[in-house]
Specification:
cell membrane; two-stranded antiparallel sheet; 69% helix; membrane; cell division; mainly alpha; cell inner membrane; single chain; transmembrane
Length: 100
């Protein structure tokens, strides 16, 4: 063996060790990111379930029968009789035409 090849061997050994450490480090990062991705997917799934529940709750709270019942009981509102209803037509030029 020549004296120069010993230094080359040490340099190559250092390069191999650095590459091995780099591979281990990148795999560790990849695993951490994958775990984080799985947690975020689970969180997104939970949010989808909650969104569906909120949509269902909204449709329940906004049913016309419920709104009418609350309007009558709590706000003392009543449906207008025929004589109380008036229609107003807006013409394209901005003028209004009131009809009884």
């Amino acid at each position: 063996m020549s004296p120069g090849s010993s230094g080359l061997n040490v340099l190559l050994l250092a390069a191999v060790v650095m590459c091995a450490l780099s591979v281990v480090s990148s795999q560790h990062k990849a695993r951490k990111l994958f775990i984080e991705l799985q947690k975020e997917k689970e969180h997104a799934q939970q949010m989808e379930v909650e969104w569906g529940q909120l949509q269902l709750e909204l449709s329940t709270w906004a049913t016309p029968a419920r709104v009418e019942k609350i309007a009558a009981r709590q706000l003392q509102m009543q449906l207008p009789v025929n004589g109380q209803v008036r229609f107003i037509r807006v013409e394209p030029n901005g003028q209004t035409d009131k009809q009884p």
